[in-house]
Structures are given as structure tokens and as C-alpha cells.
Write a structure and sequence with these properties.
The protein is of the alpha+beta class. Helices cover 20% and strands 40% of the residues. It has a 5-stranded antiparallel beta sheet. It has a 3-stranded mixed beta sheet with strand order 1-2-3. Strands 5-6 form a two-stranded antiparallel ribbon. The model has no long low-confidence stretch (mean pLDDT 90). It is elongated, with a radius of gyration of 15 Å. It has 3 helices and 10 strands.
Length: 139
């Protein structure tokens, strides 16, 4: 219950922004938030609020497992790493867990630009997450 109070603004925003199947519960000292966002902007806003409450996501007391509801027609981007795969992360930050990888020169879908550094993408295998923008180039 203490984490629900700490993250009240985040949970209120999730409820008011139309997150489908919103489910949250505190388990073992971690607030688990799950659901489906109606748009990438809603998902990005949740991460922004989370970052304002817990800068650099340092406490690790929230797991946000929110995906974007529909296939958003987006532009395509190419992975432009030097030689390795590009990590796709759960949230916009290197401290966030890796949920997938995109190969060098792979073409993936850009869902939205969360900010100048992190872009929300989806692979052909439907892996969705954030990538560091400097390794992506529009095609």
C-alpha cells in the first residue's frame, strides 16, 4: 500500500488516460503495473511521470509492463550499430531490462520518439520497447 501512495500520480494518470486492462499490485516490495496503453504518447507519459518520481529509476520498486494497444502505422528505421545488436529495453534508460534485440541493418517500426535520446519501436517479431536513438536512422 505504501508504494501505491508513493506512485499515486502515476497510477491516477494510468487510470485517467485509458489504460485497458489496468492491473497493479504490490508484491515483494515492488509495484507491478500492467495494461495496454491506447497510444505511444500515453505510454511515454507514464514513463515521464515515473522518472519524475524516481529519477534515473534508481529504487527499482516499480515494474511497468505496459504495451501499446494497436499497431500504429509508423515510419521505418534502420539499426545503425557498428557491428553488434541493438538492445530493446522495457523503458527509456540503460538501467531498464532488455526485452529484445534488433540486428545491425535490421528495419524496425518507429512507434514514437519518447524524447531526443529514446525512441519506442516494434520489431517484426512484435518485440516492443525503447532503443537509444543514436543507433536508429529513418529510411
Amino acid at each position: 500500500m505504501a508504494l501505491e501512495e508513493k506512485y499515486k500520480v502515476l497510477l491516477d494518470n494510468a487510470r485517467s488516460s485509458g489504460i485497458n486492462d489496468l492491473n497493479y499490485a504490490e508484491q515483494d516490495g515492488v509495484l507491478q503495473i500492467r495494461g495496454t496503453a491506447p497510444s505511444a504518447d500515453v505510454k511515454n507519459k507514464l514513463w515521464e511521470i515515473y522518472g519524475n518520481i524516481d529519477p534515473n529509476f534508481a529504487t527499482g520498486d516499480v515494474v511497468m509492463d505496459v504495451e501499446v494497444a494497436t499497431e500504429v502505422p509508423g515510419s521505418e528505421v534502420r539499426v545503425i550499430t557498428d557491428s553488434s545488436n541493438l538492445n530493446i529495453r522495457k523503458g527509456p534508460g540503460t538501467d531498464q531490462p532488455i526485452v529484445g534485440k534488433a540486428a545491425k541493418d535490421e528495419i524496425i517500426t518507429l512507434i514514437s520518439k519518447a524524447n531526443d535520446q529514446w525512441w519506442l519501436v516494434r520489431t517484426k517479431d512484435n518485440e516492443e520497447g525503447y532503443c537509444f536513438a543514436q543507433y536508429l536512422q529513418t529510411v
